[in-house]
Specification:
The protein is an alpha/beta fold and 176 residues long. The protein is built from 8 helices and 6 strands, in the order αβαααααβαβββαβ. The chain has a 3-stranded parallel sheet. It holds the Pfam family SIR2. It comes from Mycobacteroides abscessus 21. Its EC number is 2.3.1.286.
């Protein structure tokens, strides 16, 4: 682990509260691919900057949903790293706010409670039809089935639903 400079430790220890900004490098240390890393396998031909837009969601929600399901599956396979745990431990003794660009829950799994996600969360979804927010579920077989139908066959796949029968939810991390 990288040593924290003494000047930073001294300044942080005198502060009433501390805000820590984190980005992709924090979770990459846990083995989670960054948003802009080249995707592998089925997803290698898709540009993540294109998939993470409301326009992509309108064009083919099944494809976008499957891509996000794949990212959720990757997230469940990794654990918080020393950096996540160090911030959580520090936060148990001090007033610390974490503002992260990451859409994962690794800060929370490490024990941090005061976390703001700038770009939303892979684990939360929002329905544009009924305006409901809900927890996103991960189903590997569903993600693979939807991905194959949409990406390989080129067809518009079945849309995930928040339960009302009329809803078309998208990950809260879809760019707005």
């Amino acid at each position: 682990m990288t040593e924290v400079p003494d000047e930073l430790i001294a300044a942080a220890s005198k502060a009433r509260s501390v805000t820590v900004l984190t980005g992709a490098g924090m979770s990459a240390e846990s083995g989670l691919p960054t948003f802009r890393d080249a995707q592998t396998g089925l997803w290698s031909k898709y540009d993540p900057m294109t998939l993470a837009t409301p326009e992509s969601w309108q064009e083919d929600p099944g494809l976008v949903w499957a891509w996000y399901q794949n990212r959720r599956i990757q997230l469940l396979a990794v654990q918080p790293n020393d950096g996540h745990r160090a911030l959580a431990q520090w936060g148990s003794h001090r007033d610390i706010r974490i503002v992260t660009q990451n859409v994962d829950d690794l800060h929370e799994r490490a024990g941090s409670s005061n976390v703001t996600h700038v770009h939303g969360s892979l684990l939360k979804s929002h329905c544009d039809t009924c305006r409901s927010d809900f927890e996103a579920t991960v189903s590997a077989p569903e993600a693979e089935r939807v991905a194959r139908r949409s990406a390989v066959a080129g067809e518009r796949s079945a849309r995930a639903s928040c339960g009302s029968g009329r809803c078309f939810p998208r990950s809260s991390s879809v760019m707005r």
